[in-house]
């Protein structure tokens, strides 16, 4: 968690993510890179280069690109100014944390993926908003895509955090053999927050609770966890159970490993991670199995 990338569209949610990234970087001694992705007019509208239409039956002077170029130059200037303002704010919020900024001209998802590779990112912290169908389509779709595709862990933030002090971590799983592949990622998170209690959570649908607890204890032993609790909750869906339990124990962080392949445990399905990441109250950290 040393090289942290924060995509921002200057919304409230992306600012919450920026604040958390600064607190996390201060805790780990990391660096924050602010990213804004500018969509070129053609990508944003499909036909911006002819915006304005003909003048007196003719084309605008330099209509092949002149207006677009002026628009992009002005937009870049405004963007850089807003990024500079955030960097100045960081000096007050987290003095001593190095903050850089960068701009990608691309479609949003592609721009974020390019920046991850370009800057050697090992953690993406981004805002999420998923409270309604329209909001989910226009806002959370990009977050969900990054969760699916990013080669590094992704931390999603939906609400302002007065302090990002991680004392309670919820780790949902069914603790079968497939879950062993998630141990290394969980150990890295726990190493960053060694004082935190890890809640090993199973969302049940009528399974034997005694057998589940035995699996949880075995997993804790394999993961070399010393400060942990086991929990079982019954819910109609896995994501609903995770959200309910996180609220019940006042979780500071939910940690969800995922795997894009089908046929694996439902706890490792990317769709579960996407739903929890955009709906559960606390920040949610997702990462892919090795």
Keywords:
ten-stranded mixed sheet; 290 residues; 9 helices; Rossmann-like_a/b/a_fold; 2 domains; alpha/beta; Rossmann fold; elongated; single chain
Helices, strands, pairings?
Layout lengths: L2 E5 L4 H17 L2 E8 L2 H5 L20 H28 L5 E7 L2 H11 L4 E5 L5 H17 L4 E4 L10 E5 L10 H10 L4 E8 L4 H14 L5 E7 L3 H11 L4 E6 L11 H10 L4 E5 L2
Parallel strand pairs: 1-2, 1-4, 2-3, 4-5, 6-7, 6-9, 7-8, 9-10
Antiparallel strand pairs: 5-10
Describe the structure in your own words:
The chain is α/β, with parallel strands linked by helices. It has two domains: 3-43 and 71-157, HUPs (Rossmann fold, 3-Layer(aba) Sandwich), CATH 3.40.50; 168-288, Rossmann fold. The protein is built from nine helices and ten strands. The protein has helices spanning 12-28, 41-45, 66-93, 108-118, 133-149, 183-192, 209-222, 238-248, 270-279; strands at 3-7, 31-38, 99-105, 123-127, 154-157, 168-172, 197-204, 228-234, 253-258, 284-288. A ten-stranded mixed β-sheet has the order 3-2-1-4-5-10-9-6-7-8, sandwiched between helices. β4 (123-127), α5 (133-149) and β5 form a beta-alpha-beta unit. α5 (133-149) packs across α9. The protein is elongated. Residues 1-158, 167-287 form the UspA domain.
């Amino acid at each position: 968690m040393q090289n942290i990338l924060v995509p921002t569209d200057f919304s409230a949610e992306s600012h919450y993510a920026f604040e958390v990234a600064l607190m996390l970087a201060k805790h780990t001694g990391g660096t924050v890179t602010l990213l804004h992705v500018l969509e070129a007019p053609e990508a944003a509208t499909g036909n911006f280069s002819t915006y304005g239409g003909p003048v007196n039956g003719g084309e605008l002077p330099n209509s092949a690109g002149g207006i677009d170029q002026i628009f992009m130059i002005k937009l870049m200037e405004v963007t850089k100014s807003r990024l500079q303002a955030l960097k100045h704010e960081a000096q007050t919020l987290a003095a001593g944390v190095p903050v850089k900024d960068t701009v990608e001209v691309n479609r949003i998802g592609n721009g974020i993926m390019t920046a991850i590779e370009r800057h050697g990112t090992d953690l993406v912290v981004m805002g999420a908003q998923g409270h309604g169908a329209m909001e989910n389509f226009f806002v959370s779709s990009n977050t969900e895509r990054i969760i699916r595709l990013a080669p590094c862990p992704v931390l999603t933030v939906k609400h302002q955090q007065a302090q990002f002090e991680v004392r309670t971590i919820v780790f949902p799983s069914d603790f079968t053999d497939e879950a062993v592949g998630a141990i290394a990622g969980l150990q890295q998170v726990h190493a960053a927050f060694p004082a935190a209690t890890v809640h090993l959570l199973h969302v049940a649908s009528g399974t034997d609770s005694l057998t589940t607890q035995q699996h949880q204890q075995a997993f804790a032993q394999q993961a070399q966890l010393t400060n942990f609790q086991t929990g079982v909750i019954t819910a109609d869906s896995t994501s609903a159970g995770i959200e309910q339990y996180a609220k019940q124990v006042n979780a500071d962080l939910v940690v969800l490993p995922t795997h894009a392949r089908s046929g694996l445990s439902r706890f490792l399905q990317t769709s579960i991670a996407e739903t929890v990441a955009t709906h559960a109250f606390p920040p949610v950290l997702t990462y892919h199995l090795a």
